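Appendix C: a fully annotated inverse folding record. The material below is reproduced so that readers can follow the format used throughout the book. The structure is listed first as tokens, followed by the designed sequence.
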């Protein structure tokens, strides 16, 4: 019998605060961290580098699935709390490129393809190693780690998420338009929630936290209470 590896599945739409919560839990429990969204973003980047269109045709889907299956990626811890992971793709540092909004939009396009989701399945499962795992994504609790010990679905209204993103980008000195951000978040939600494979939806046994009217401290307190109850 293999030893049990405690797993926390954290799902929810873009901008719900999952990233902050995932980093907090991984630090608190000294668990590994899977940022599954980064893997979909990397498939999009690798596809663009290979000049493969992201359109949904059977041939493209097969090639994109193969790219996903062979993705050579490393997540390297940095000492910077604002940017805790450097990411390499086939040996090149791509951390900055991975976090752009364009990479997010490309990711949600390739993520609707079953071959890409299949191609990333084993890689995602391989992150489940002692002493434990915090898995951040859209289908962690439903498809990738259905056996997870704790499942949390973190959400917030699209308006609240757009406003948070707006503040983050303004803080970084970037010129952005709140309405454009809101529309982009809605389009991404629409794609993620309505795709045929692993759509974004809470697992039946997930704790749902709606953070629309909470600040991050309150969210962390709620998450901490749930995880402590389950894992100790
Ligand atoms: O979380 P992040 O914004 O990095 O995810 C980018 C996109 O990747 C999401 O909008 C979603 O379409 C896709 N994704 C997914 N399944 C996951 C993680 C991300 O479909 N487990």
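Designed amino acids, in order:
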């Amino acid at each position: 019998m293999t030893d049990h590896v405690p797993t926390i599945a954290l799902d929810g739409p873009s901008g719900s605060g999952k990233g902050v919560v995932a980093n907090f839990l991984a630090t608190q429990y000294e668990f590994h961290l899977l940022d599954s969204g980064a893997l979909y973003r990397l498939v999009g980047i690798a596809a663009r580098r290979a000049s493969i269109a992201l359109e949904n045709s059977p041939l493209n889907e097969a090639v994109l699935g193969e790219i996903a299956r062979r993705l050579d990626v490393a997540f390297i811890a940095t000492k910077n709390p604002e940017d805790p992971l450097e990411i390499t793709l086939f040996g090149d540092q791509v951390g900055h490129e991975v976090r752009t909004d364009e990479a997010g939009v490309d990711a949600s396009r390739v993520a609707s393809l079953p071959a890409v989701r299949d191609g990333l399945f084993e890689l995602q499962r391989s992150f489940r190693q002692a002493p434990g795992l915090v898995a951040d994504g859209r289908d962690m609790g439903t498809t990738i780690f259905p056996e997870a010990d704790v499942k949390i679905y973190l959400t917030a209204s699209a308006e609240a998420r757009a406003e948070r993103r707006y503040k983050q980008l303004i803080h970084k000195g970037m010129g952005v338009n709140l309405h454009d951000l809101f529309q982009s978040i809605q389009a991404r939600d629409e794609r993620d929630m309505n795709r045929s494979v692993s759509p974004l939806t809470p697992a039946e046994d997930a704790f749902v936290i709606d953070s629309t009217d909470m600040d991050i401290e309150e969210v962390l307190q709620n998450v901490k209470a749930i995880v402590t109850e389950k894992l100790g």
